[in-house]
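Exercise: predict the fold of this chain.
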Amino acid sequence: MSKKKLLGQIGFLALLIGGTVAILKRQPPFRTDHGVIFGTFYQITYQSHDEWKNEIEEELRKVDFSLSPFNRESIIAKVNRNEPVVLDTMFTYVFTLSKKIARETNGAFDITVAPLVNAWGFGFKHDIVPDSAVIDSLKSFIGYRKIRLENRQIVKDDPRIMLDCSAIAKGYGVDLVARFLEHKGIRNYLINIGGEIAMKGKNPKMNKWHIGINKPEDDSLSTNRDIEAMLALTNIGMATSGNYRNFYYKGDKRYAHTIDPRTGYPVQHSLLSATVLAKDCATADAYATSFMVMGFDAAMAFCQEHPEIEAYFICSGRDDRFDLHFTDGMRKYLVEGKKE
């Protein structure tokens, strides 16, 4: 090769490298916003020249105004008080999705369960374990079949029926932020609201997003964050539900915070946590709660009948060990060595 030709190739290579570096420098930076919403923490990482924290929080406040039972002016609070109210599209979407998942899970997921949850000592922290008479009385006005949407109005079979969408609203909030970011042309992001997650595109290292599944340990202060498994994910919603932190003791008996709407009693099974992957976070959120009600065997059977849902289950085993189970489709997301 002649010296002149070699110099020409070197010059072209230098120009190519310089152009690539210039293009990379023009790429938007990754930003991370933090805050508190729905009584929990959120963290949102996204690639953008612009900061969108104020607009993101405004989107989340819309969810609070529609679906928070703790906001007295919210739509759901007015529905619970049987006051006239105009339902927004957000409420009707979440209500319709909740009814769909309730039917699919034979009532394991039920947004009318709140009075039972409160009676068992969660929500308003009642001190007295309810007896069978109390449970039977509450069950008379609990059940997803006893409420419906007609002409953009909620119709109740019993005025005492109360709705609580907390097992799906955080996931919906994640999806709402995802739609907002995509509307702004953002293609790489991860949204985490209290452990309910959606991600798209790539992380700052230009890899898939790496998300850990925590070991289900009795750690009420959440100081121990050991990872049981690591997943490499993109373009998907993820949610985890578990019984290992939310429980209380009465005498020598331990009660899980997950109440089975069909029986009226706390669940008693070996499933400690369920991590679900689905097309959106609201769906993953609702199924994760459903599986904690159903228990491992029924949840795994459900997943086998619904291949669009992937799940990772952690159950209590012998000698304080965990039994790990996951759907066949989950295997492709698992990261060897649990490290990024």
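Check your answer against the key: The two ends are 44 Å apart (CA to CA).
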